[in-house]
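Fold sample X.
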Amino acid sequence: MGCYVVDCVCFSHKLIVELDGPQHLDPAALDYDRRRSEWLGSEGYRVIRFRNQALDDDIRQVVEEIRRMLGDG
């Protein structure tokens, strides 16, 4: 999208789901992610981020949060 690659996108709901590994905790990565999310937001998209660990720990909670963001839950 634009000059960015996103992990998952639902065009009909303008929702982007990002899955973040530990490299996203680096200060430079945090700044990059912030600027990236701001740009995507300026294009009308909502960005929701999950740590990869959240998928391992409680994937149902991740799915429920995505469902809420889609307005289906």
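Fold sample Y, listed below.
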Amino acid sequence: MTASSSLGRQIAEVTEALGNAGIPCALIGGLALASYQVVRATQDVDLLAPLDMSETIDGMLIQLGYRCLHRDTNAGNYVRNRERVDFLYASRPIALRLLRNARQITTALGPLCVVSAEGLIGFKLQGWVNDARRAQDLEDIKALLRANRSQLDMNEVREYFRLFDKEYLLDELLCNLP
């Protein structure tokens, strides 16, 4: 995927508008996986941003031509033609820390802030715990563990699994890694 792709232009437009407004954001979801050696097809942009900026984000996206599909204190979902951007709003200490510690990396889509691999695992785990039909989240966790095990802070990863009373699952996943 190149920065000239439709998805690349969409990410650049949204993150530039947020940056110009001084709103921190970080890539999460399927696109962020590529930053940690996991590639899978996805068509939407998932961003983490502070809850206290959600009103400003909403207005900004409306100005960019997006239509709000849903918005509450946890998330906002927007669509423009075939383009979709989803926001997860950080309000809890862990999510705010992950946003604050996101690192800027050079990607095929240009420079982007991306949450840590550990943080992605935590968000994927939360998504799966909230809806066990989201099997792709569990597959993404497995792929992140497989590709990054030697670099991961396993204490941090274990803490996310502990938060959801799923430490046994982490142990199973680690035992079954190739």
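Sample Y note: Strands lie at 26-28, 44-50, 67-71, 75-80, 83-90, 103-107, 110-114.
Also: The two ends are 28 Å apart (CA to CA).
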